[in-house]
Each structure stands twice: as structure tokens, then as C-alpha cells.
Amino acid sequence: MVSGTTVSSGGEEYVASGGTAIGAKLKGGYDVVFGSAVSATVSSGTQYVFSLATATTVSSGGLQVVESGASATGATVSSGGQDYIVSGGVASGAKVLSGGIETVFGTASGTTL
User: Containing domain of residue 98, as a range?
Assistant: First the structure.
């Protein structure tokens, strides 16, 4: 388990299967999640979710990609941020604020607009 990581432009964080990252801050760069990510903040970077992300905040310039077979719960997408759900991916309980975008090719439930 790792907590409070900041990933700047050009940086990368990989969360291995069985691992947990809590409170990561992406300010550019990439967060690739094969384990669990909790309460990440994504701005000017991309979080790729291959397993589970919970309570991610996606702000201006940020992108969360929920891959096939993965799930994201309780994301908040603010103005200029984007939540992208690939076919086979699942998003639940997302809150999309004014100016935020949720693009769904998989499954989304409980989204608040």
C-alpha cells in the first residue's frame, strides 16, 4: 500500500495486482491501476483502471479510462474532466458536474448529472 503519491508531467505510477494506492495526485503523467486506487485526484493526467478505482476526482485536463473488466465507483468529474468507460467497463455512482464529460461504451449506473 502506498499513500499520498504525486505524479507530475512525464511521471508514471503503476499499482500492481493486489496493491492499493490511496490519495494519489496526478498533475500530468499516468496512473495505471491493476490493483485498487482510492481517492485519487486526476488533473492534467490520465488514470487507466484495469481493476478498481474508488472515489476518484477528475478535474480540468484529467481523464479516467475504465478498461474492459474494470470498475470505477463514486467518481466526481468536474468541469474540463472526462470519465471514459470502455466496452466491458463499469462505472457506478459517478457525479458529473457542469462542464464534465462521461463517455460510456460499457455500463454506467447511478450517474448524477
Answer: 2-109
Looking at this protein, which amino acid is placed at residue 90?
A: V
How far out from the chain centre does Cα 14 lie? 13
pTM (predicted TM-score): 0.94
Cα–Cα distance, 102 to 91 (Å, whole number)? 10
Helices (H) and strands (E) in the chain, counts: 0, 19
pLDDT, tens digit, 9 for 90 and up, residues 51-61: 999 999 999 99
Q: How far apart are CA 81 and CA 64, in angstroms?
A: 8
How many separate domains does the chain show?
1
| C-alpha grid cell, residue 87 | 466496452
